[in-house]
Write a structure and sequence with these properties.
It holds the Pfam family Cation_efflux. By secondary structure, the chain is mainly α. The protein has three domains: 39 residues; 196 residues, Up-down Bundle (Alpha-lytic protease prodomain-like), CATH 1.20.1510; 75 residues, Cation efflux protein, cytoplasmic domain (Alpha-Beta Plaits, 2-Layer Sandwich), CATH 3.30.70.
């Protein structure tokens, strides 16, 4: 039996080694403390999710609606603000001739366009003909997100190319007067106020709105600074600011698109979702002898769950059917599950 005072160290090029605690380096101690903290943080979060699932299944709580009245109100105000800023940023771009200011106009334009595309997709999902689409058209939302991400990336990439052309040809003439600066600062100030309100609201939808507005505020401030410096001190600051703003936005949206593609082609769901489903399956009915296997994967933003359970082969069909059906109904109550399929078997065959 190994000495309990010895701790293992696993390296890529050597087998497991054991050494005394006093020989651990400072960086190794920090790494272990960080890993330990992350482990207990994930465990605490998982236990909280277990408790929420138990309350949901017992009928103590109801599934949260995706759109609450206050959140819808904030979303509508955000849409109206984006439409207003679209025209004010266009005016500021015309007055200044600044590429940095133009980058904020492109950002506002694509925000409105993406909101329109997502709105059309959601409307189509709600008005689905269930005869032609027996399982609905929920994937349209994910397709809409990917299309918006690609459009945002391409539009900002084109502006980066235009900024590079301006630098090479020396065609740089930004004009930042009081009117332009006032228009830009006024729009940013309104967004800051609405952003703070969304953060204070604290719901998932309002937090998403707040994060989007936070990014818009940051890009607007960078654009104002670079355009002002380009007008008064160093002309190349203006196209460089446009490259910075558009480069960050394009990279972010390309990453957003790439991150959503795996959900469209069947990526495995997060381990915590699998754990939540397993807990419900195990505690569902004592007549379930084994859990053969569980698959939780994405074909949309939500997940599909396939559960294979093993019960006594002598149980009547009615009993096995009722157990499986109630389990399926339980799992469908989870907000991240779009569809669930429960298969009954009399032996563990590994889904051969």
């Amino acid at each position: 039996m190994k000495n309990p005072e010895l701790l293992p160290l696993i390296s890529r090029k050597s087998p497991v080694k054991y050494y005394h605690n006093e020989n651990i380096s400072f960086f190794e101690k920090m790494r272990r403390q960080k890993s330990k903290k992350e482990y207990y943080s994930r465990l605490e979060k998982l236990n909280q999710l277990y408790e929420e699932d138990d309350k949901l299944l017992e009928g103590i709580t109801q599934p949260e609606e995706h759109e609450q009245s206050t959140d819808r109100w904030l979303a509508n105000i955000s849409i109206a603000l984006n439409l207003t800023l679209l025209f004010t940023n266009l005016l500021a771009s015309i007055l200044s001739g600044s590429l940095s200011i133009v980058s904020t106009f492109v950002d506002s334009l694509m925000d409105v366009t993406s909101g329109l595309i997502i709105g059309i997709c959601l409307k189509l999902i709600r008005n689905t003909n269930m005869f032609n689409y027996p399982r609905g058209r929920n994937r349209l939302e994910l397709v809409g997100v990917i299309i918006c991400s690609i459009l945002m990336g391409i539009s900002n990439t084109l502006l980066v190319m235009e900024s590079i052309r301006s630098i090479l040809e020396g065609d740089i003439n930004p004009v930042m007067n009081i009117t332009t600066i006032s228009i830009m600062l006024g729009g940013s100030a309104v967004k800051i106020i609405l952003c703070l309100i969304c953060y204070k609201r604290g719901s998932s939808s309002s937090i998403v709105l707040a994060m989007d507005m936070r990014n818009d505020i940051a890009t607007s401030i960078v654009a104002i600074i670079c355009a002002t410096v380009g007008d008064r001190y160093w002309p190349y600051a203006d196209p460089l600011g446009a490259i910075l703003v558009c480069g960050v936005i394009a990279t972010s949206w390309y990453g957003h698109a790439i991150g959503h593609v795996p959900h469209l082609v069947g990526r495995r769901a997060e381990s915590e979702k699998l754990s939540r489903i397993l807990k419900i399956v195990i505690e569902h009915d004592e007549r379930i002898k084994y859990v053969d296997h569980v698959m939780v994967y994405h074909t949309t933003l939500e997940a599909l769950a396939e559960v294979h359970i093993v019960m006594d082969e002598n149980l009547p069909l009615k009993v096995t059917h009722d157990i499986a059906q109630k389990l399926e109904q339980k799992l469908m109550m989870l907000v991240f599950v779009e569809r669930c399929f429960v298969h009954c078997d009399y032996e563990c065959d590994g889904d051969k």
